């Protein structure tokens, strides 16, 4: 059997303790150095040398203030606040690496597509084609109110805007400049053949953008498109647009169903299944021996902030978890959102009684998905099982401690995965992010992708 | 006499031939490599080693389409199109340097202050306090229409919005987080003292921003503030807010009057004159001998694009210059904007008959201001004269060819300026941009700056 190659992104954010509230207090954790550029350049070098395909940045534009109706717990424990803009360290990280991809979360709700399109084209140029864009439609309420909205837009309305937003971007990225528009012929003194630069003449419900795009075609033109739609509408959106889908489910059973549904939707869209990579999530706490791994886990768990975890969980679910007592079983919680959050973890281990405390500590060790405590072999076994049974193509790997978790992973797990033929050798890397995900020569979106409609812009518009 | 120290910014843009249309065709010009990150990191290293204080990035968000009512001339000649986002290469340039400052042009008209404030705080952190912001209120009509406006806002309305925009930024940068809010005490497990993080509760005419800011205080908090207001309203704005004022006048007489007026306005605002640096513009074409310099000038002039220059000039003045014949004297042009543009150059050399062609070629060799063709001594003489007579503190130095012009300047002119005591020695540099401009320890805005009103935010708001 030819084994599937596993794709690996480090999962990170420009804040301390991304998904492990409180663990910044661990003596070895350095994630609070996120304001320091050398922290990011060192990390980029380590990830590239260590076999990662990319680094995937989450982002929020607000604070977690659902718990206790206040941001106090989040601020006190440094839970995703303070938080910096994820785009700005990328050129430095690209400068010290050659192949590492950069997936960045950016919302379509709060920035104009004409500006974001230029921003991502610029980065795709500067990184020589290593940019991915995680399309999100919303952030926290606390973000929306700071940007002039009274609260978040309705879910379906956000996706409606996102559809039009992408249409504008596709037109700018794929249609506005023909491939050979830029000539730079010093003899004929022609920089650009102006007849090959087209207005996009977009006039939609939400945006009016005559064009043209301001940047010439970048190596990938459209960045690698990530999406993480979970709702039916979100899955529909992802199956139409996304090249990489990120799903943070905690059990193989749950993720397997999701992936099956998603791949079927992709086919229905007329796209090839192999043009979409699905990334699960898996938090490894790895040691050379089981005892070493378990000891690491215990120490990390001691540094988890209970309140910080609840601040995070309350923000995710929209439920103020301060109303529940720590040791109460969560089986009979009535709120839909909370029940579904509990259900997910309950299913992960049906024999365990989930209390609020247990849930908080599980989340606190990076456990938005499964937490695998064990030897390199055990972690590799589990990853292999997820790939084979849940049909994921790879993982976003969160850290519990940074950069230590990533260092452990590159030093201990990557060699094991290579030995099993699940990761390519270090020198089998291409230049662009899309090629590293889909294969040599596949720098641009395939023709079955909806963006291709706008390749023909020149024939449909008068410039 | 203690001579004034001269401040130096390289004047650049993320496009080819920033202010020298057509000169990208010169065999030695490399400015068309602007998509390539190593072009920017090499330039940053050269500028820092060569004695520059900073690099100042212009920007536009549209194309120059006034000339002939079309963007054809601009696109064909690569006149500031294609053009990338200036913020994104900065972290890489900061990674390879230690002291070089980065001034970036960003408009207050098209991006939300809550987002821009985070973006600039992030950069100030990552560069260790080396960010400046050139506040502009508008771009071209061709930009406005792509961002959902039917055209540019009225001049005074733009400044009204800018005033409120800055108020929001000051509140976020200076008032939201107290200096010692971030504790990061691993023992007490307190990341941030939440009682020292304040909502800004801004409710204005154009923006509603409850806050708090998302980033902790960066080295400079507020980036070094640049502005280039020329109109009475613009000067008023600059005298109130700007720490560095950029004026692109072509003669000492014109700039002298401007600087005198500006400094008087600064005093009226209750600010200290020495808290504002004025940057003129001066394009040096330098050779070891006069003949060498003159030969360089002649060669560069041959590569200027006449139509490209007119595209640029038409965009700046808003007048379609295709209506004038190339060799007609411009003395009797009736349009106000054009007459004032011509007047400016006429005053620069009253014995010269300015035709459209001559004006185009003057602009084409980087001549938005004076063009000094000569030896290092002659260029230094002229700079000294500007400082003494026009009372400027420094210059934004455009290139005619990049990076060659900057290399000539650092190799030939900088040593001459140092010999005269007009530039500090290479090792007399501080860490932050503001200290390099205003002196050791002056990392933050002085207390006479209007932003200081918002330092007291905590006493005025309930968090």
Automatic annotation (TrEMBL), chains A, B:
Do you know which CDD domains this protein is assigned to?
Answer: Nitrilotriacetate_monoxgenase
Q: Disordered: where is this region?
A: 440-463
Record-linked InterPro entries: Diverse_substr_monoxygenases (IPR051260), Luciferase-like_dom (IPR011251), Luciferase-like_sf (IPR036661), NTA_MOA (IPR016215)
Q: What is this protein called?
A: 5,10-methylene tetrahydromethanopterin reductase
State the species of origin.
Alteribacter lacisalsi
The reply on keyword Flavoprotein is yes
Give the residues the record marks as binding FMN.
Answer: 59, 105, 155, 159, 231
Q: Which UniProt keywords apply?
A: Flavoprotein, FMN, Monooxygenase, Oxidoreductase
Domain of life, source organism: Bacteria
Matching SUPFAM superfamilies, A to Z?
Bacterial luciferase-like
Residue span, Luciferase-like domain = 29-388
Record keywords: Flavoprotein included?
yes
Q: Name one GO molecular function term.
A: oxidoreductase activity, acting on paired donors, with incorporation or reduction of molecular oxygen
Say which family it is in.
Belongs to the NtaA/SnaA/DszA monooxygenase family.
Question: Which Pfam families did the record assign?
Answer: Bac_luciferase (PF00296)
